[in-house]
Amino acid sequence: MVTTLAFDCGGGGIKASVLDAAGTMRARPLRVATPYPLSPALFVKTLRDLGSRLPAADRLTVGMPGMIRHGVVVATPHYVTRSGPRSRVDPELVAEWSGYDARSALADAFDVPALVLNDAEVHGAGVVAGTGCELVLTLGTGLGSALFDGGVLAPHLELSHAPVRWGTTYDTYVGEVERRRLGDAFWSRRVRQVVEGLRPVFRWDRLYLGGGNSRLVRPEQLARMGDDVVVVPNTAGIVGGVRAWDLTAARSG
């Protein structure tokens, strides 16, 4: 039985567990706060230290924020800041993270095959049905997204950095800072507005709302979004670590 050590890396915290071939957790999930400033070397060390507290596994899956292509970091919005999301960007960290081969570095550090994807893509791997056009939006520090067609993962788009109104990005518009400022009721209305605005763009068959803040969307707003919108557990960010291998293999095939 192949086991997978899965990491769900966010702007505020990093979670990990070991999964069996069916995606069932074989160890209690662990969490540590994301350290800042976060260089690639510290990122690898943090995951290595967290992983050492869990059973050994045959392979590694890491979901992290940003644009990740073939395991290489094109850009990561939170990890280039000096003290966390919304703080000042450090030019030296931007240079260190740009083009960083995270997959190779982590495979070497853990001495097992590694898969590194955007965190919303791993989250989506844990929930999609595998039929039709399925969009995953994760609500947390910011807004994550992943698109699947017939269960095959599409190339990643950083939807979170697109402007939604008045020069404000989706990341800011429905992110954690705004949720705290507005309160859950008004923030939930914003989430519904985002869903309504994206519907004619994607024409999805099913939309999944995940991430740590998805459970805070008010029922009355969720009901107005329609039956094709479903809230899914935040644990999908870890349990998707197994299925992500199959979905990315289908894309490359």
What does this structure look like?
- The two termini are 24 Å apart.
- The protein is α/β, with parallel strands linked by helices.
- The model has no long low-confidence stretch (mean pLDDT 94).
- It is built from nine helices and 15 strands.
- The strands form four sheets. The protein has a five-stranded mixed sheet, sandwiched between helices.
- It has helices spanning 40-51, 91-97, 102-110, 119-125, 170-173, 176-182, 184-202, 219-225, 236-252, and strands at residues 4-9, 13-19, 30-33, 59-64, 67-69, 72-75, 100-101, 114-118, 133-139, 143-149, 152-153, 163-165, 168-169, 206-210, 229-231.
- 35% of the residues lie in helices and 26% in strands.
- Strand 12 (163-165) and strand 13 form a beta hairpin.
- Helix 4 crosses helix 9 (236-252) and helix 7 (184-202) packs parallel to helix 8 (219-225).
- The longest helix is centred in the C-terminal third of the chain and has 19 residues, at 184-202.
Distance, first to last CA = 24 Å
* Share of residues in helices: 25-40%
Strand proportion, as a percent range, falls in: 25-35%
Total of helices: 9
Mean pLDDT equals 94
Q: How many beta-strand segments? A: 15
- Poorly predicted runs: none
Strand order of the largest sheet: 3-2-1-4-8
Largest beta sheet, briefly? 5 strands, mixed
**Gyration radius, in Å:** 17 Å
Query: So what's the overall shape?
Result: globular
